[in-house]
Each structure stands twice: as structure tokens, then as C-alpha cells.
Amino acid sequence: MKAPQDVIIRPVITEKSMAGIANKIYTFRVASEAGKVEIAKAVEELFGVQVAKVNTISVRGRSRRVGRSTGYTSDWKKAIVTLKEGSKAIEFFEGLA
After folding, report:
1. Where is coiled-coil annotated (predicted)?
2. Average pLDDT of 20-36?
């Protein structure tokens, strides 16, 4: 079992993810080998909230070019976490929305 800080890498800050905050839906970049149960426990432990469900997406790396050289961005995993009705909002996101 990994520490919660090793499971949740960072929040994903996009227009779409910020729109979900009103409905208590939060998006995080997570460790590639983390499962849904592990992600839910990590979010509950780190932020002191109750998780209703977790959806995960494996994001494929894309081809990128800088001048003549080409390469790939790394593959990563995204988790969309929905909180339970009675649960409070995550304070970290309050100033961003």
C-alpha cells in the first residue's frame, strides 16, 4: 500500500475540471498503477472528505516536436473523483474556482 501522497500526484486544472467543482467532481493526476479503491482512500485521507465514486482514464502520450527533434510526452492516469452529497468541498480548490 502506497502513501496517499504517492497515489495523488497533482490536481488537473482545466476549464472542464473547474466546471465540475460546483457539482463536487474533482480531477487528479494519479499514479499509473493505482486502482480505484486506492485512489478513493487516498483522497479521503488527504482531504478529509467522503468519496462516492472514482472514474479513471489512462491518457496516452502524444508526439511532440521542438525544432528538428521529436519525442513523446509520457503516458499518465487521470482520476475523476465524485464526492458524496453530505461531504464538504475540498478546500484546496476553493480559491481556484
Report:
1. none
2. 94
